[in-house]
Amino acid sequence: MERVVKVQEAKTRLSAILADVERGEEIVIARGDVPVARLIPFQEPAARELGFVPYRVPEQFDEPLPEEELAAWEA
């Protein structure tokens, strides 16, 4: 469940609020009655293996483009 705190309280009690977030609580910071930010516990992104798309770079990848293709890109 998320708790709503006003900006002034967030400024005054930032360390305590961050400790609550570290314990898993979600905090919404509001300016007046308008929510403006949500503090949630940080999660490391999952590791992704490089090369997860089945694709091979063609051998001619580094060769110069034909003149007609260059002209199409420059138009």
From TrEMBL:
Question: What Pfam family is a match for this entry?
Answer: PhdYeFM_antitox
Going by the entry's taxonomy, the superkingdom of the source organism is recorded as Bacteria
Gene3D superfamilies in the cross-refs:
YefM-like domain
Q: Which family does it belong to?
A: Belongs to the phD/YefM antitoxin family.
What's this protein's function? Antitoxin component of a type II toxin-antitoxin (TA) system.
Specify the protein name.
Antitoxin
**Organism, as annotated:** Actinophytocola xinjiangensis
